[in-house]
Amino acid sequence: MAATAAVTTSGSLGALRAAAPVHQGGGQLRIGIVGVGGRGSGAAVQAVSAHPENVLVAAGDAFADRLENGLSGIEETLVEGGRKAQFQVSKERRFVGLDAIDQVLATGVDAVLLASPPGFRPLHIEKAVEKGVHVFAEKPVASDAPGVRRVAAACALAKQKGLSIVSGLCYRYHDGRRAIVQKLQEGAIGEILSMHGNYVTGELWNFDRQPNQTELEWQLRNWLYYPWLSGDLIAEQHIHTLDVMAWIKRDVYPIAAMSLGGRQTRTDPKYGTVYDHFATVYEWEDGTRGHSYCRQQNGCWRDVNEYVAGTEGKANVFLHQITGKNEWRYDGKARDMYQAEHDEMFAALRAGKRIDNSDYMCKSTMMALLGRMAAYTGKRITWDEAWNSKEVLMPDQLSWDGPPPKSEVAMPGRTKFV
Ligand SMILES: NC(=O)c1ccc[n+]([C@@H]2O[C@H](COP(=O)([O-])OP(=O)(O)OC[C@H]3O[C@@H](n4cnc5c(N)ncnc54)[C@H](O)[C@@H]3O)[C@@H](O)[C@H]2O)c1
Hints:
Elements: H1 2-5, E1 29-34, H2 38-49, E2 54-61, H3 64-80, E3 94-96, H4 100-106, E4 111-114, H5 121-130, E5 134-137, H6 145-161, E6 165-167, H7 175-185, E7 192-201, H8 215-221, H9 227-230, H10 233-236, H11 239-248, E8 256-262, E9 277-283, E10 289-296, E11 303-310, E12 313-316, E13 321-324, E14 328-329, H12 337-350, H13 358-377, E15 381-382, H14 383-387
Parallel strand pairs: 1-2, 1-4, 2-3, 4-5, 5-6, 7-10
Antiparallel strand pairs: 7-11, 8-9, 8-15, 9-10, 11-12, 12-13, 13-14
Helix pairs in contact: 2-3, 2-12, 5-6, 6-13, 11-13
The structure holds nicotinamide-adenine-dinucleotide.
C-alpha cells in the first residue's frame, strides 16, 4: 500500500508522520526512551523485541549515570537475545537533563516510551503529541488533578492526529486477567456487590544522600517519597488494583471515596513526605463498594490481588477463578503482559491501526488521586471535586538551581482540599 511504498531511503517510516501518523507496512520504526530506569529499560527491550525492524535510536534521562547504566543493561539484554542491530543509540543521541525529552523528540523518533517519575508525564505526553509521536506512557500519568486534565487534553489531540496512546497499566494486557474480567463483565457472578483489592507489600528502594547533592537532586533520585513526583504509593503502585476494579465495572468510575492513611514505619526524613499505607472505600453510583488497601511496610503480610463478591458467586482475580453458580478457572495462554503491551502496540501501528488507552489511563490515575485526596484531608471527596481540583503539586518549570516544590506530610482533618 502507499505508506509502505513511501518508506524513505533510510528505511524509516518517520517521514510519513505528518501525513499518516498511523504507520503501515514494513520498514524501521524508530523508538526513543525518556527515563531509563528499571521500568524504562524493560519497556525499551520489550518495544524493540516486538518486531525485528523496531530500533531504539535515542534515550534521555535526568542523570548521566542512570542513562548510561540503563543503556548498558538494555544493550546487553538485546545482544543476548540476538538483537544487537536493533540497538542504535549512538553517543550523539544520548541526552541528559530535565529537558532530555525535547532532545529525544528532536531526533525524529516515531514512538517514545515515557518512564520518568509520574509528575513529569503530563509535560512529556504533551510534548510527544505536539511532535506527532506515538506514545507508550507508564502509569500513573500525573501526580495532581490539573496534570490529569492536561493529559486528557493531549490525548484528545492525539486522537485527532491518529497517534497511539498505550498505557503501562499492564494488567489490561494480561491474558488471564482479560479473561476473568470479561467473565465478570458478562455477569458470571451475577450483580457485583463489592470488590476488595490489596496491594500490601514491603518497602521499595531508597538512595543515600550524597555530599554536594542539592535538595532537588536528592528528591528526584528518591522520587517515590515525594507526592509531587510519584503521586504517593496509592497512585504509583496501587493504581494497578484500582484500575482492575474500574475495569471490572466496565470502566465506570466511582462517584466518591473516603480513605484512612498515614505513615507509621516510614517516619525517617529519608522517606520524604509520602504515607506508608492507605485504606480507601470507593463508592459507585449503583451502590457497589470497592474496598482498597495498600501498604509498603516491611515485616508484614503481603498480598496483591482483587476479590469480588456478587449475587451468584465470587471471584479471585489473581487466581483467575470463579466460584459459585458458574464455576470457572482460566487455563489459557499466559503471555508476559509487559511484552504483550508492546507486541500489541507495534502490531497495531504496522497494521495501520491505533491503540488508544487514554480514557482508562487518565481516569484510573484520577481514581488513585481521589483516594489520596480523601486520605490526606480526612474528607469524603467526590469524583467531580477531585477531577476539578486546583491543587498543583508539579511545578511547570523546574531548574537545577532552584529548590523543589514545598512538600509536607499531610495531616487528615488539617490538610485542606484544594
Ligand atoms: N507498569 C508497571 O508494572 C511498572 C513497574 C515499575 C514502575 N512503573 C512506572 O514506571 C515509571 C518509572 O519507574 P521506575 O521503577 O523505572 O523508576 P526509576 O527510578 O528506576 O526510573 C526513573 C528514571 O527516570 C529518570 N528521570 C527523572 N526525572 C526525569 C526527567 N525529567 N526526564 C527524564 N528522565 C528522568 C530517573 O533518573 C530514572 O532513571 C514510574 O511511573 C513507575 O510508576 C511501572
